[in-house]
Amino acid sequence: MKPLITIIIAVLNKSTTLERSIKSIINQTYPRKEIVIIDGGSKDGSISITNRYLDNISYFESARDRGISHAWNKGIQNSHGEWICFLGADDFFWSENVLTDIAPYLINANTKGINIVYGKIAKIDENLNIIKYIGKPWEKIRWQVKHGMALPHPGLMHHRSLFSKYGLYDEAYKIVGDYEFLLRELKYRDAFFVNNLIVAAHQAGGQSDISNVLTNYEILKARKKHKLPYFSWVWTLVYLRALSRLILTTIKKYISPKLNSK
């Protein structure tokens, strides 16, 4: 039997893109799918958009949450799929055949005891132009996983058994909860790469200096938790660079006005 695939969308004030994301799931030719939407208390019309498609949605709730990891956890707890993937509220499946095309790989991975299946994503700009592709064969990025998030998370397929085995996302991680969770499995075992374009994801704007520092800090924290080398020379340089930029920005913010006022 074809596996049931759950797609979870965590959303907060994404009315301009949410409908496209929902429709990209509804329009999938694959019959055994369910949609779970966790809204964090949107005020911009996202709830009204979701209400239009309730006949196609297995579970929907809107309430304030404690962050993205908490939203994902609520989605998992209200899902039934053998395979679970997460789609950003401003992301969408590349074609209507994405799930149909990937399903045979999920079945094959399951027979081999592989619990994580991923493909390629296209980073796009506001005009839907492709900026770059992300996603490489596992053999090429296996070593990178222990240093940072090397797998594209949107559309990545998690076998349900992972959440039974390891528990849910750790809500202490506000930015890299997905990375910390994947480490639980991938520090020991392999993932399976499908050379298909799965998702189109909007290219995020440049991270702020403080966000870069927090991201790198959480990555180091996750590596320490999993008893991986805490400071590699690569991440030490990345972290120190982000921290130094934050310090310089802070100094300029508070000193420049005083100098200009003299």
Task: Supply the CATH class of the largest domain.
Answer: Alpha Beta
Shape: globular
Main pleated sheet: 9 strands, mixed
Rounded to an integer in angstroms, the radius of gyration calculated over CA atoms is 20 Å
CATH topology of the largest domain: Spore Coat Polysaccharide Biosynthesis Protein SpsA, Chain A
Q: Quick check: average pLDDT?
A: 90
Give the termini separation.
76 Å
Query: What structural class do you assign from the helix and strand content?
Result: alpha/beta
The sequence of SSEs as H and E is EHEHEHEEHEEHEHHEHH
Total number of helical segments? 9
The tally of strands reads 9
> How many domains comprise the coordinates?
2
Strand content: 15-25%
* CATH architecture level-2 label of the largest domain: Alpha-Beta Complex
CATH homology superfamily name of the largest domain:
Spore Coat Polysaccharide Biosynthesis Protein SpsA, Chain A
- Stretches where pLDDT falls below 50 for ≥5 residues? none
| Estimated helix fraction | 40-55%
SSE map:
Blueprint: E1 5-11, H1 18-26, E2 33-39, H2 46-51, E3 59-62, H3 68-77, E4 83-86, E5 92-93, H4 98-111, E6 116-124, E7 130-134, H5 138-141, E8 157-159, H6 161-166, H7 177-186, E9 192-202, H8 209-225, H9 233-261
Parallel strand pairs: 1-2, 1-4, 2-3, 6-9
Antiparallel strand pairs: 4-8, 5-9, 6-7, 6-8
Helix pairs in contact: 8-9
